Amino acid sequence: MAKIIIGNASAITVPRKDRESIRKFYSDVLGGKLVKEDNDKDIYHLDYEFYILFRYADVPDETEFLSSPRALWLQIKSDNVEELSRKIIDFGAKKLDIPSGLPESVPYLYFQAPGGQVFQLLPIDENQSYYKGTLEGKNTEKEAEVLKENALSELASKHQQKK
Q1: Domain over 9-162 is classified CATH 3.40.50.2000
Q2: How many C-alpha atoms does 127 have within 13 Å on its Cβ side?
Q3: Model pTM?
């Protein structure tokens, strides 16, 4: 079987009207560096060699879909989750109430950024045993899956009710 890895870049097409809030959020809140721009796109460099490209076009606002259970959510990490969480919420990003499935002592935040992307914010040093299914003495994978499934079902139900 062919070997694959996830690359170090992501791209999304967003409504032109979101450009200013995207620029402020990715520069001022997340500390990203705008490395390339033209009339139709911005490319931001975030630490650890990750790049996110925003294509601006006359497209419908899909913010609602992007926070639905069917969307792809990205993970970001910080050495100070509490401080960055406050900055994100103070900026006006939408907090999403989804359990992480991690031990209660691990701070986290699910949020929707300008442009519609949904992120899970975690500590840099979080070992994420949940994803590996290897936390000693506990079946955290199963416990976390139940929590997440319940939350996603609730989110899907709310999404259906809005339609």
Answers
A1: no
A2: 8
A3: 0.77
